[in-house]
Design a protein that fits this description.
alpha/beta; 7-stranded parallel β-sheet; binds NADP nicotinamide-adenine-dinucleotide phosphate; Rossmann fold
């Protein structure tokens, strides 16, 4: 049986490592993250199960790090891209160090686009390919005033961009053999956010997220929210709201509330 080569970013822990362990049965792997020691340890574990594993240490918050990974993707042979690396940077915007904004948005939003752009030509030429991008349920949370949610302007900016990018890309690639999925987990019990998820009773396991995503591929899901029971109804409602905004607002005349007398 031919083994597909999967490149996974953020493979040194959490959800990325869970994808790697699930896929190692019938995939070879390229593992990407900054902590080379963690990647090497996982490569050794998965190599002993029969997978050929490359380790590619890279900081995806930098142009050089992105270039190292896009170079590997452009070299071809990668049939599955899982763009999972991310960081929260949870903080009120006014407390964010301005120098941290670009690396955070680069890691969470720019890198996934660059990686897909690099992977696509070879996938289209090969006549097959799978692209998974890990976003978050928080991508849908811009309007939420729930006080339990973290301060998250930069994170939402990036993950909403990733969500919109991947959903739009799915439409663009609908007539091709390349499958696209964006994964939107809720709280997951990983090292994320200083391991906060480990003490939250409703946190999902990283293995649960990765296995839902892979099962969702078989179901043809473009959006995978691993804990959401009635996903079709929620996405239909979202599509209807989006259509109402885009179609309803795209007119030459001002809405009536802007033309009446001012209070
Ligand atoms: N945990 C949650 O509650 C939750 C919920 C929704 C969505 N997510 C998403 O799930 C994805 C994985 O997170 P996780 O929960 O598995 O957390 P995690 O265990 O902290 O894993 C994050 C991964 O991203 C890598 N990473 C971080 N900064 C990087 C950088 N600058 N360059 C390259 N790699 C970098 C880390 O590796 P190195 O430190 O070795 O670089 C690590 O492998 C993230 O995109 C996150 O937004 C998580």
């Amino acid at each position: 049986m031919t083994r597909t080569l999967a490149l996974i970013t953020g493979a040194s822990s959490g959800i990325g490592a869970a994808y790697a362990r699930l896929l190692a049965e019938d995939h070879d792997l390229v593992l990407v993250a900054r902590r080379a020691d963690r990647l090497s340890g996982l490569a050794e574990e998965l190599g002993s199960r029969g997978a050929a594993v490359e380790v590619l240490p890279a900081d995806l918050g930098t142009r050089d790090g992105i270039a190292a990974v896009t170079g590997r993707l452009a070299a071809g042979g990668v049939g599955m891209l899982i763009s999972n690396a991310g960081a929260g940077g949870y903080s009120p915007l006014v407390d964010v160090d301005p120098d941290d904004i670009e690396p955070l948005l680069t890691l969470n939003a720019v890198a996934p686009v660059q990686l897909v752009r690099a992977a696509l030509p070879a996938m289209l030429a090969a006549g097959e390919g799978t692209i998974i991008t890990v976003a978050s349920l928080l991508a849908f949370s811009a309007g939420s005033m729930d006080p339990r949610a973290p301060r998250r302007t930069l994170y939402v900016a990036a993950k909403a961009a990733t969500l919109g990018f991947t959903r739009t890309l799915a439409g663009e690639l609908a007539d091709t053999p390349v499958r696209v999925q964006v994964v939107c987990p809720g709280v997951v019990a990983t090292d994320w956010n200083s391991g906060a998820g480990h003490s939250i009773p409703w946190a999902m396991s990283p293995e649960g997220v990765a296995s839902a995503s892979l099962a969702g591929l078989s179901l043809g899901e473009t959006v995978c929210a691993p804990g959401l029971e009635d996903q079709d109804a929620a996405l239909d409602a979202l599509l209807a709201a989006e259509a109402a905004l885009v179609t309803g607002g795209n007119r030459p005349t001002l809405a009536a509330r802007y033309t009446g007398p001012r209070a």
